[in-house]
Each structure stands twice: as structure tokens, then as C-alpha cells.
Request: fold
Amino acid sequence: MEVLLITPEKCTNCQACELACSFAHEEEFNPVRSRVSVMIWDHQAHSVPIMCLQCEEAACLAACPAKAISEDPLTGARLVNNTKCIKCRMCMNVCPFGCTSYDTTGRKIMKCDLCDGDPQCAKVCPSGAITCVDRTSVNVSRRIQAALKLKAIMWGTL
Reply:
């Protein structure tokens, strides 16, 4: 199974991920209808793509009174069945990262579904801030990045 790996320091705030997501799901380029949001801190010149992290102990899944959220056995994504969903927004209230939203136009809950295993946001990210990696390699990738940073600091190249 693959997961999305977010490397915030690589984000350039191009917002291509938001546009690709909204187009893939809603057939329109509209960041408001995207399942990923790029958060911008102007005073620090930082941008971070925020999306559902597909938590192992998913609060959204546990909180849904209609049992409209389930785990996709192939991708591991927490999927919303909008036919069963009663739009109570409990999933929004319990998400610790605020990664579930409500689409007022389509009258539905929106959260990352990993695009059926082919995340469009990762495909279009020009800087590599969003990548799709094997679930078991996430920690290895983070360790390598930390080691490279430490090496650059020690050798004065950072």
C-alpha cells in the first residue's frame, strides 16, 4: 500500500495540487472544491500542503454515526459513501488536522481518497513536496532527509 508523503520545506505554493485534485474529483479547477489545501504563512514565507493523512486510528471513521466512512482495502484510504452520509459533519469536528471539509456546492463531505491509488496531487507537484511512497518506506525517507540536512549543517553547505 502506498501513502502520501508530505515534505513541507519543498512546497513552493504553486497550488498545482489543489487544481489537480479539484479537476480530478469535480471536473473544474477550483481550489475550494479540492481535498488538499495549501496553507500559507506569508510572514515566514512557508507553504504546507494539508490533506487527509489516512490515520490508522481514524477519528472520522469512528465518529460517523451513519457508518458512511470505510477503509478501502486496496489503498487504505478512508472513503466517504455520500449516499449513506447524513451530512452531520461529525467527521469534520473530530479530525485533529482539519482535513475533512464540506462542499456546499455538491452538498457532500470531502476528504482525500488517494484517487483510487493514483494521487493526482503527487503526479503534478513540481517540487516533490507531495510524493506517493510505499507505506513501509516513509520512515526511511524521513531518516535520509534528516541525515542529509545534518550532513549539510556539519559541512557548512546549508
The CA atoms of residues 68 and 84 lie 5 Å apart. The longest strand covers residues 2-6. The chain has two domains: 1-51+115-158, 52-111.
